[in-house]
Amino acid sequence: MLNVTSEIGTLRRVVVHTPGKEVQRMTPALRHDLLFDDILYHELARHEHEAFKRLLSVVVPPECVLDSADLLRDILLDSETRQALVESVCLLGVGPDTDRDGLKRELLDADVDTLVSWLIEGKPNPGRHRHLTQYLSEMPYQLPPIPNLMFMRDPCAVVNNGLVVGHMYYPARQREALLVRYIYRFHPLAGGGEGPRPPMWFDMLSTQALEGGDKDNLHATIEGGDVLVIRSDLVIVGVSE
């Protein structure tokens, strides 16, 4: 179950994300949309992240360092979870000129490994890869890649035994929070599973909210990095984006 009562308490389990093709798929034209000042060197980023995971494995058992892509793959094996997540992804935001219904059918029909790849690394729009100049100057994706997912502090925050789901200010980051929301709610190693679901202290990415909940609340944004759990009865919340 989820349980974080102190930022400096004993670390028992941690979820990370190893940089993948979503980093490689950034182009000069896309880097600002994806909130980067420059294009990352994928091999170096991956090497540094592997070193980070080895360091974490000194603090907790290696089997307790969990990768988000593996957890996402596990929960998508369940047809009901896949249906709900795909519907939410298509409500949240897709590339320009994308047929949402057609995209939804493709996502539901894909095998689980392909689906995980598309959700994280991006789903290219075949019609926009014909010319190099188009590739460098447009958004050539039905689902844009989410290279910021490696910053796993931001999508959600665990406060005591419940979850604050990130509602990111920038659209480029909103799918990160949606994926992590589903991981925490449905994966047994991340707080979900057969037992009671973790309480949701703040959640603007529920199906109801995405389908048109309280419009005033749509302006409320928060990221996991804004939330510091000092002790079980004290939380500090910063104001960022």
What does this entry look like structurally?
36% of the residues lie in helices and 13% in strands. It is α/β, with parallel strands linked by helices and 241 residues long. Strands 5-6-7 form a three-stranded mixed β-sheet. Strand 8 and strand 9 form a beta hairpin. Helix 4 packs antiparallel against helix 8. The chain starts with 13 loop residues before the first strand and ends with a strand.
Global outline: globular
Radius of gyration: 18 Å
Q: Oligomeric status of the shown chains?
A: single chain
Query: Which stretches of 5+ consecutive residues score pLDDT under 50?
Result: none
> Would you report the number of β strands?
9
Kindly estimate the percentage of residues that lie in beta strands according to DSSP. 5-15%
Major sheet: order of its strands? Answer: 5-6-7
Question: Structural class from helices and strands?
Answer: alpha/beta
- Total DSSP helices: 9
Termini gap:
30 Å
Largest sheet composition: 3 strands, mixed
| Order of helical and strand elements | EHHEHHHHEHEEEHEHEE
Average residue-wise pLDDT: 87
What is the share of helical residues?
25-40%
